[in-house]
Request: fold
Amino acid sequence: MSLDGRVALVTGASRGIGKAIALRFAEAGADLACADVVYGSASEPGRDATAEGVRSAGRKALCIPCDVVQYEQVKAAVEGTLREFGRVDILVNNAGIARDRLILRMTDDDWEQVMHVNLKGAYHLIKAVARPMMKARYGRIINIASVVGISGQAGQANYAASKAGLIGLTRSVAKEFGGRGITCNAIAPGYIETDMTEDLSEEMRNQIVQNAPLQRLGHTDDVAGAALFLAGDDASYITGQVLVVDGGLTL
Ligand code: NDP
Reply:
């Protein structure tokens, strides 16, 4: 599955799933713009490490500090990508956060932060890449949702609602932009081993492993492989779909 000559913009590429996607795309021949939040001490070295990995794969990398919640920063990130590479073929809306709490204990801030980063952030990026993609009559948009956006999850009402919203956004974008050669799909991962899931209790881990037919938690590369498929030419007649990558957990 080749992405030779393609340019991809991946949000949240400093670590976890976003980093794995950026590196997998680079190995497949794409140049990368990695956009990450400006604040947060962790993101800068992470961004640099991702960029280094992209360059080691022989591709170009551009690191863009960008909080997806701020439309001006998102616009600047897309303009920077276009200035550097002249095009943006693939967008992966991967940046995401969780603020888990039962509804009775959830604050408005917990609700709003999660909705803003996970859902509004994706809307911002899609809006910013829409014109250049429409002009090129080509685009691949991939939104990283979650299985809990389909099934719901106690203690994750904000997160699940944001991911369910992302699936609705995916299908709407697929309908709105399909005529311009742009596909839009979502990936719904199950439990993938990253910083986001490092606090899972041993009991919860064992439960997931027991319940998933494939008997393990997911790796970031499991999601990266699915993203590579959706970004490539083999998926050119697939749009508006949700690809579940959960080892069969939600069967
Ligand atoms: P991580 O917490 O490991 O990484 C999240 C990434 O998002 C980081 O690079 C972070 O940057 C970035 N980010 C956070 N807020 C913003 C922001 N406002 N603007 C720009 N970038 C931001 O998460 P994962 O790799 O585990 O998750 C990636 C995606 O996959 C998320 O959307 C998540 O919801 C989804 N997902 C994950 C699952 C899992 O089990 N891990 C399961 C299902 C879905 P920084 O380093 O600066 O904090």
About this structure: The pocket of NDP is lined by residues 11-12, 14-18, 36-37, 40, 42-43, 46, 66-69, 94-97, 117, 144, 146, 189, 191-192, 194-197 (CB under 6 Å). The radius of gyration is 17 Å.
